[in-house]
Amino acid sequence: VQLQASGGGLVQAGGSLRLSCAASGRTLSTYSVGWFRQAPGKEREFVAGFRRGGGVVYYGDSVKGRFTMSRENVKNSAYLQMNGLKPEDTAVYYCAAGTPILSNMRNDRAYAYWGKGTLVTVSS
User: Fold this and answer.
1) Helix/strand/coil (H, E, C) string of the chain?
2) Per residue in 36-80, pLDDT tens?
3) Which pLDDT value is given to residue 26?
4) Pairing verdict, β 118-123 and 9-12
5) Which of 79, 90, 108, 124 is the residue whose CA sits 20 to 30 A from 31?
């Protein structure tokens, strides 16, 4: 499966952005999907994800209550709605797909397929 993330940009603190992850080649719903981010000089961080076939979305502690992940099977896509953005949310955001077991949902190494990232910059 090929993934393409889009929707990043420059936004002021408190603003919102919606990221999209468009899949091609395979049906995205057959995979678990995750959003990760990596800020300069930091390790890649789990942001949100849902398991294939499941309705539960898991979130990283730093984004709970502010970010919402969703998917639209008809469009073979997943989304990340980001509200209440903070300067510390500045990072390159990646979508990934794979078949991690539940305990590995937050582990980036458990995802086999990655799209090119999209840069989110939040100004103070």
Assistant:
1) CEEEEECCEEEECCCCEEEEEEEECCCHHHCEEEEEEECCCCCCEEEEEECCCCCCEEECCCCCCCEEEEEEHHHCEEEEEECCCCHHHCEEEEEEEECCCHHHCCCHHHEEEECECEEEEEEC
2) 999 999 999 999 999 887 778 999 999 999 999 999 999 999 999
3) 94
4) parallel
5) 90
> 57: how many CB neighbours lie within 10 A of its CB?
15
User: Sheet containing 67-72: which strands, arranged edge to edge?
Assistant: 2-6, 17-24, 77-82, 67-72
Tell me how far apart the alpha carbons of residues 79 and 53 are, in angstroms, rounded to a whole number: 17
pLDDT tens column, 105-117: 999 999 999 999 9
